[in-house]
Automatic annotation (TrEMBL):
Signal peptide: none annotated. Keywords: FAD, Flavoprotein, NADP, Oxidoreductase. It catalyses: [thioredoxin]-dithiol + NADP(+) = [thioredoxin]-disulfide + NADPH + H(+); 2 reduced [2Fe-2S]-[ferredoxin] + NADP(+) + H(+) = 2 oxidized [2Fe-2S]-[ferredoxin] + NADPH. Its cofactor is FAD. Its EC number is 1.18.1.2. SUPFAM superfamilies: FAD/NAD(P)-binding domain (SSF51905). GO terms for molecular function: ferredoxin-NADP+ reductase activity; flavin adenine dinucleotide binding; NADP binding; thioredoxin-disulfide reductase (NADPH) activity. FAD binds at residues 13, 32, 40, 45, 85, 119, 279, 320. It comes from Amycolatopsis rubida. It is an enzyme of class 1 (oxidoreductase). Binds 1 FAD per subunit. This is Ferredoxin--NADP reductase. Residues 3-291 form the FAD/NAD(P)-binding domain. The lineage of its organism: Bacteria, Bacillati, Actinomycetota, Actinomycetes, Pseudonocardiales.
Amino acid sequence: MDYDLVVIGAGPTGLFAAYYAGFRGLSMAVVDSLPEPGGQVTAMYPEKMIYDVGGFAAVRGRDLVQGLVDQAAPWKPDYLLGRKAEKLESVEGGLELTLDGGDVLRAGAVLITAGIGEFTPRPLPAGDGWLGRGMVHFVPALAAHAGQHVVVVGGGDSAFDWCLALHPVAASVTLVHRRARFRAAESIVRQVRELGVRLVTDAEVARFVEAPDGSLAAVDVTVTGGADEQLRADAVVAALGFTADLGPIESWGLEIDHRAISVDSTMATARPRVYAAGDVAAYPGKVKLIATGFGEAATAVNNIAVALNPEAHLFPGHSSNVE
Ligand SMILES: Cc1cc2nc3c(=O)[nH]c(=O)nc-3n(C[C@H](O)[C@H](O)[C@H](O)COP(=O)(O)OP(=O)(O)OC[C@H]3O[C@@H](n4cnc5c(N)ncnc54)[C@H](O)[C@@H]3O)c2cc1C
């Protein structure tokens, strides 16, 4: 076997499961279709404060994710980011998981922490071919935009969050939205206006303008009922939201209802050696929260440890007893 455990999904639940698998002495890989760890937190609200994670009166999403990555780091998880889990087959003594591109991982057990599914950013048509060359869908490191002219496209919470977060580091931040009304909460729209961020409404990015060296120079914006304009841009944050889809996981022979996988009290699914935890796992009374996912990850991994080695204890002992 390549790994004792392969975790599908590097959201908060999968990251905590990686820590826990290391704590239980299991070798593990963590697969995620996003290029960054953190799941929904990284993709949708990295700058928001979270108030209901045990032990933190308030923690910024980005900091929580970093803390989870740091917590798992001593156990050296293999992160396979930007890779999608596509096919799951049972083989003698374990499972084979095929990733997009055809790589096959052999594992004793698989823990699915796929949340609400694989995220696909809603495309910005004018930005076709510019992803990674000036256009991003989310901002893993604010410092990368220090001193840049940034155009944020979108009218939801994420778009406004990015404006708030980027304003202190960027040379300028301009928001372009195709309507005059925003989906974002009024309070955050007010904060962004008060900062003096320019909001260009009833407007669409029509074209990315290339500099002589091939980098992004500007975007052409068409304004309904107003004058079209060109905005200087070193970076465009296309924050048009994400669609989420369980995709291939739906065909893995699991019990799935309303995009959630049925599990028992050990977090085992209907299929041997396959477990699920976090938002994707369902049982009566389930509450989808980060805190819930942490508990389920611990339950799943401890039960996996016993499934892989029947001599192992279900209760791992207290981490506070480990030197
Ligand atoms: C705006 C917003 C605010 C929120 N605020 C709070 C809050 O204050 N407190 C709180 O407790 N919860 C909050 N939540 C909910 C919380 O974010 C989720 O409960 C949590 O992220 C679930 O974690 P997870 O690891 O189970 O799944 P996710 O975070 O959804 O991560 C799942 C990961 O699996 C990956 N994946 C899926 N399918 C595949 C595949 N086939 N191959 C590879 N990778 C795959 C996805 O790319 C994703 O990264 C909020 C959610 C949103 C959207």
